[in-house]
């Protein structure tokens, strides 16, 4: 039998957590042979609903789930973790400015980065789902100096899946026959869903779609603003598709996904001319066991794509500057409880 994987999940009693935990428990994240121990982390207030969530996991009678623990102390919750899925965060309250939201979450991610550094495995695989995801990943990694920044990713897989779904809907192809879409940049409305390299049933997507107006005026804004469209329709945020994307991201990263391109926001190493040190979504190949490589052997972007990539790059630099006071060496403030 494989050694047990310790999987820490923050925000475990929230909407995404609720949808995610059953699927991790049933083996959809790490495969049907991988036993897991779930280390669930919530706020003090979240401990009571978390108890109910834990009872439901228990009632699933999952053979792969060997133990479930609950805590509001990230140092305990990340103890010896092989994997950490960071879903917990502060939502935007009434009248809250974007910069306040950034700083509130950066304070949480500073604390969690320190806790990961103190207690998780050195090769812990971290996925940040909570928004602002890219910048939260930057802050957490900055506070985890003993963990390689490449171990931290922010999730743009939901955007990637949304882009595939739109192309499938437009062309009538099956989702599985839409390949090589790319989400560049931030998990926000400035992201660039790019079809320049995409294939539909093996043929260039741009030729199959043959409608540049649709791509620029419908496809791109729809993928960028899909979260708001779903809230508008159902009155709830897109929790189950977000959980599904987290499953896809981790499954591909840990089990490998062959020559299939995946979008992940990773620590920029300067590739594609993107500033080093920000978390930027790029196309990757997932080799399994958490190993990935950027796809750099692609044609240079055309003028339109270059401008789109530049806009999301600028937003991420601004976000970094907004939370600079919470980065090590900056004016580090106390983390509010
Ligand atoms: P939610 O509000 O239902 O759940 C969040 C949970 O996190 C709550 O139970 C809360 O108590 C907990 N929490 C807050 N601070 C915490 C902390 N410091 N430690 C541990 N737990 C903490 O929200 P939902 O719908 O589950 O979304 C979670 C996050 O995911 C949000 O930030 C949302 O914006 C983001 N999101 C990201 C997506 C992506 O594609 N990257 C897609 C959809 C949502």
UniProtKB/TrEMBL annotation:
List, for all copies, the residue spans of the domain called Lactate/malate dehydrogenase N-terminal. Answer: 6-144
Its EC top class is oxidoreductase
| Catalytically driven reaction(s) | (S)-malate + NAD(+) = oxaloacetate + NADH + H(+)
Q: Which domain of life is it from?
A: Eukaryota
InterPro entries, sorted: L-lactate/malate_DH, Lactate/malate_DH_C, Lactate/malate_DH_N, Lactate_DH/Glyco_Ohase_4_C, Malate_DH_AS, Malate_DH_type2, NAD(P)-bd_dom_sf
Kindly list the positions annotated as binding NAD(+): 11-17, 105, 129-131
User: Listed GO molecular functions?
Assistant: L-malate dehydrogenase (NAD+) activity
User: What is annotated as the active site?
Assistant: 187 (proton acceptor)
Q: Where is the signal peptide?
A: none
Q: Would the keyword NAD be found if you checked this record's keyword annotation?
A: yes
Recorded hits in PROSITE patterns, A to Z, give:
MDH (PS00068)
Positions with a binding annotation for substrate: 92, 98, 131, 162
For this UniProt record, the keywords arranged alphabetically read as follows: NAD, Oxidoreductase, Tricarboxylic acid cycle
Indicate the segments forming the Lactate/malate dehydrogenase C-terminal domain, all copies.
156-324
Entries under Pfam families matching the protein = Ldh_1_C, Ldh_1_N
The EC number on file is 1.1.1.37
What NCBIfam families does the record point to?
MalateDH-SF1, PRK05442.1
> Which family does the record assign?
Belongs to the LDH/MDH superfamily. MDH type 2 family.
Q: What is this protein called?
A: Malate dehydrogenase
Organism, per UniProt? Gracilariopsis chorda
């Amino acid at each position: 039998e494989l050694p047990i994987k310790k999987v820490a999940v923050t925000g475990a009693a929230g909407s995404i957590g609720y949808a995610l935990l059953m699927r991790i428990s049933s083996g959809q994240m790490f495969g049907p042979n991988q036993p897991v121990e779930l280390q669930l982390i919530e706020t003090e207030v979240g401990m009571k609903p978390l108890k109910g969530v834990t009872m439901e996991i228990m009632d699933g009678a999952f053979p792969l789930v060997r133990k479930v623990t609950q805590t509001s102390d990230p140092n305990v919750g990340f103890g010896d973790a092989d994997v950490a899925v960071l879903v917990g965060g502060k939502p935007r309250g009434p009248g809250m400015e974007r910069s306040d939201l950034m700083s509130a979450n950066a304070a949480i991610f500073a604390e969690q980065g320190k806790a990961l550094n103190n207690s998780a495995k050195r090769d812990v695989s971290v996925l940040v789902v909570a928004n602002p995801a890219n910048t939260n990943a930057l802050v957490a990694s900055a506070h985890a100096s003993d963990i390689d920044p490449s171990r931290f990713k922010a999730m743009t897989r939901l955007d990637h899946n949304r882009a595939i779904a739109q192309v499938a809907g437009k062309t009538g192809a099956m989702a599985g026959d839409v390949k090589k879409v790319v989400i560049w940049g931030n998990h926000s409305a400035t992201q660039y869903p790019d079809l320049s390299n995409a294939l539909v049933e093996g043929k260039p997507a741009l030729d199959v779609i043959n409608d540049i107006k649709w791509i620029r005026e419908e496809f791109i804004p729809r993928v960028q603003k899909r979260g708001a469209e779903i809230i508008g329709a159902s009155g709830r945020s897109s929790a189950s598709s977000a959980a599904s994307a987290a499953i896809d991201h981790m499954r591909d990263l840990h089990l490998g996904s062959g020559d299939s391109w995946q979008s992940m926001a990773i620590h920029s190493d300067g590739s594609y001319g993107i500033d080093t040190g920000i978390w930027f979504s790029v196309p990757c190949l997932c080799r399994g066991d958490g190993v990935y490589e950027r796809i750099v052997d692609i044609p240079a972007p055309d003028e339109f794509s270059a401008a789109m990539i530049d806009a999301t790059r600028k937003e991420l630099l601004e976000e970094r500057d907004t939370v600079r006071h919470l980065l090590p060496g900056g004016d580090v403030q106390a983390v509010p409880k």
